UniProtKB/TrEMBL annotation:
GO molecular-function term, one example from the UniProt record: oxidoreductase activity
CDD domains referenced in this protein's UniProt entry, alphabetically: MDR7
InterPro entries from the UniProt entry: ADH-like_C, ER, GroES-like_sf, NAD(P)-bd_dom_sf, Zinc_ADH-like
Residue ranges occupied by any Enoyl reductase (ER) domain in the UniProt entry: 8-305
Name the record gives this protein: Enoyl reductase (ER) domain-containing protein
Cross-referenced Pfam families: ADH_zinc_N
Amino acid sequence: MGPQGKDGFGSLTIETSSLPPIGEFDVLVKICAVSLNFRDLMIAKGIYYWPIKDEVVPVPTQTHIAGTMTLQDAMNNLGGLMNGGLREYAAYNENGLVEIPASLSYREGATLPCAALTAWNALYGAKPLRAGETVVTLGTGGVNMFAIQFALASGAQVIATTSSDKKGEVLKKLGVHHVINYKKDINWGMTAKNLSLGGRGADYVLEISGPNTMEQSCNAAAIDGVVAIIGTRGGNDGAPTLPHIALVTTRRIMIGSRLQFEEMNRAIEVNKIKPVIDSKVFKFNEAREAFQYLWDQNALGKVVIEID
């Protein structure tokens, strides 16, 4: 599938092409499902703020995700991290594919390469999360839903923010210890800090909204806490406002490595973690609707498109 330019979701069109050529170390993959990321939406709308390859710009779901895949001849369950996943078949280098946990379906496996791996890297990529520490998450998108599950599995305290009480109830069912509605509490950062164990603040804050919420994220963090900077969903206007005495470590997260991916998959298997997928799953020919659905912030968890 590809758009006729970068003029929004209405420009997405289905295109037919020949099967890709296969190199010596390539694998021909039949893609069963993909999941969307906010980056996909920004590219399709022509508002992505980082340089990307020309051949990536015009294609929807030119995301870090290629979805869950089946190897044609061996029928192994594969997941990968590459551009151009919204298609029926693709050829990828064998080193770019990772086996997904046997306990997950294709839909569930499609959520791992970007959202789950980003959350895992944020919590375990530098200073590994330990039991009894506090994690603050922002919103109910894919990255933070995975972060919640990973943190709870490690024995950490989890404080989650959300935009609605309805979504808050879902978070509580997942096991979140405290939920804050950030639309009702504009000083949610200090609220989160006060709710943390001993009132010392969060050891980890997963910042997905950008400069507009950075001050609150720093307010929520403990001294020497880590603010993992993941995205700019709340806007990218100007430099972030940081408290003058914010003694925190900021760490930019760019997904994760293959080694982290395999480590994460083992943790998912052992802890029987199931990805949170929005109840509305889209078909291949409903890609435009899927993009709009995620853009309108209707999703709870990951938005998945089934290819077959």
